Amino acid sequence: MTNLIPKNHPRAHSLYVRERLVNAFDDGLVAKEGLMAHGRGEAFDYLIGEKTSKSAKNAIKAAAFALVSAKHPVISVNGNIAGLCPREIIELSKVANAKIEINLFYANEKRKQTILKVLHKNGAKEILGVDKKNSTRISGLDSARRIVDRDGIYIADVVLVPLEDGDRTIALKKAGKKVITFDLNPLSRTAQTADITIVDNVVRGIRELIDACEKTQKKKLRNMPFDNKKNLAKSISEIRNYLTRRARIA
Ligand code: ATP
Ligand code: MG
Predict the structure, then answer these.
(1) Substitution candidate for ligand 1 out of 76, 184, 232 with most atoms within 8 A of CB
(2) Which residues line ligand 1 (CB under 6 A)?
(3) Ligand 1 atom at shortest distance from the alpha carbon of 42
(4) In angstroms, how far is the first alpha carbon of the chain from the final one?
(5) Of the N and C termini of the chain, which has fewer Cβ atoms inside 10 Å?
(6) Which residue's CA is minimally distant from atom 18 of ligand 1?
(7) Nearest by Cα to 150 from 138, 139, 134
(8) Which ligand sits nearest to residue 13's alpha carbon?
(9) Cα angle at 206 between 186 and 202, to 5 degrees?
């Protein structure tokens, strides 16, 4: 891996994450469109000050409760997620007792196998979405994109879809799933359609989600009321406040 980023660069971490994604693209994990999606994410990360906001922490608590108390929770994995945080996905699946399903928006068998290898290398045991015999369809999407695993998303009550496209999120909602997402853009269709939207960089937020799931399990925390629309409005006003502060400094 190339390492051209000086440690004291003010955006060292974001640039390091970008480099990881580019490497994941070179390794065949990430689609071209995934690189562009990452660029959109970076732009919004700038606008939230590259840190986990209060509203994101609220959403993380609600997401932890939803995952831990679900009957059939599933984590949907795409190329970007597999490239950015494979280990954390597996850790999260353990603490939340959730299944992992590879589910690609830009379906590609070779890329699926590459993602499978990376997940195995990072310690995953059971991975759904790879056995064609076990696939079925959900309605409301065009052919390639509606294929899901019979033992995974198809029967799931709660699905975590980090960095997901709006059409798919809407289809999952129509299929009766509770949808949790990580999406840095609070205005995207996914962010607006999901039940719980964590407006944070998944690279930061997933660690907090793992910790929150552990806490929720151990302390048997009760559910707190959570209104996604209100929380999204809060995250937009956090952006506004951050920009106002920055404008004063500039
Ligand atoms: P939508 O289809 O929901 O309207 P879109 O078409 O703009 O959104 P997609 O490519 O479909 O975007 O979905 C990817 C989403 O993931 C984008 O909203 C992008 O901001 C977000 N994103 C990209 N990288 C990250 C990241 N590292 N952490 C969190 N969110 C991210
Ligand atoms: Mg989209």
Answers:
(1) 184
(2) 37-38, 40-41, 44, 163, 165-166, 182-185, 188-190, 201-203
(3) 24
(4) 35
(5) C
(6) 185
(7) 134
(8) 1
(9) 40
For the segment 117-141, what is each residue's pLDDT rounded down to a tens digit? 999 999 999 999 999 999 998 887 7
Count CB-CB contacts under 10 A for residue 234. Answer: 18
Q: Are 186 and 197 in contact (CB under 8 A)?
A: yes
Give the residue among 225, 236, 162, 228 at the shortest CA–CA distance from 195: 228
CA dihedral 157, 172, 83, 135 (to 10 degrees): 80
- Residue type at position 141: L
Closest Cα to atom 25 of ligand 1: 41
pTM of the model: 0.95
Q: Calculate ∠ Cα 141-142-145, nearest 5°.
A: 75
* Mean pLDDT value across residues 167-192: 96
Query: Nearest Cα to 37, choosing from 162, 159, 147, 146?
Result: 162
How many Cα neighbours within 13 Å face the side chain of 21? 23
Among 71, 111, 76, smallest CA distance to 202 is for 76
Q: What does the pLDDT average to over 104-116?
A: 90
Cβ 19 vs Cβ 1: under 8 Å: yes
User: Cα(77) to centroid of ligand 1, in Å?
Assistant: 14
CA dist., res. 92 & res. 206, Å (int): 8
CATH for 54-238?
3.40.50.12640
The rounded distance, in Å, linking the Cα atoms of 199 and 203 is: 12
Whole-number Å distance, alpha carbon 171 to ligand 2 midpoint, is 13
Q: Which atom of ligand 1 lies at the shortest distance from residue 36's CA?
A: 10
